[in-house]
Amino acid sequence: MCLKQLCSFFATALCEIIGCFLPWLWLKKGASVLLLIPAGIALALFVWLLTLHPAASGRVYAAYGGVYVCTALLWLRVVDGVKLSPYDWAGALVALCGMLIIVAGWGRA
């Protein structure tokens, strides 16, 4: 897997998390309804980024899931300020390894 694809997966995950986090701020924290505009843009970008991968959609979604887990945990640490446990790190490593296995087989399936 090339670094470009990995970065693309992380950007995709970040767009999805932002697209869901901003409406959450509006609904749960009383933030401005105007946050729905960048949320919609982030979710549209998320969908577009998923289409850029060269594999069948199901494989892309499966591989993306591993990167999403890692990105969500980094979000938990950086944005929410929650210290990650050894279980969080182990789960992220397992998810990322699963993603790498799936991607390694893209050209061989």
List key phrases describing it:
109 residues; mainly alpha; 76% helix; flat
How does this structure look, described?
With 109 residues, the protein is mostly helical. The protein has one domain. The chain has four helices and no strands. It has helices at residues 3-29, 36-50, 57-78, 86-104. Helix 1 packs across helix 3 (57-78) and helix 3 packs antiparallel against helix 4 (86-104). The chain starts with a helix and ends in a 5-residue tail after the last helix. The mean pLDDT is 92.
Topology:
Elements: H1 3-29, H2 36-50, H3 57-78, H4 86-104
Write a compact overview of the structure shown.
Helices cover 76% and strands 0% of the residues. It is mainly α and 109 residues long. Helix 3 packs antiparallel against helix 4.
Residue share in helix: over 70%
Distance between the termini: 15 Å
The average pLDDT is 92
Written as H for each helix and E for each strand, in order along the chain, the element string is HHHH
Tell me the major beta sheet: none
Structural class: mainly alpha
Q: What global shape is seen?
A: flat
Number of extended strands: 0
Q: Which regions contain 5 or more consecutive residues with pLDDT less than 50? A: none
Number of domains: 1
Estimate what percentage of residues fall within beta strands: under 5%
* Number of discrete helical segments: 4
Rg for CA atoms:
15 Å
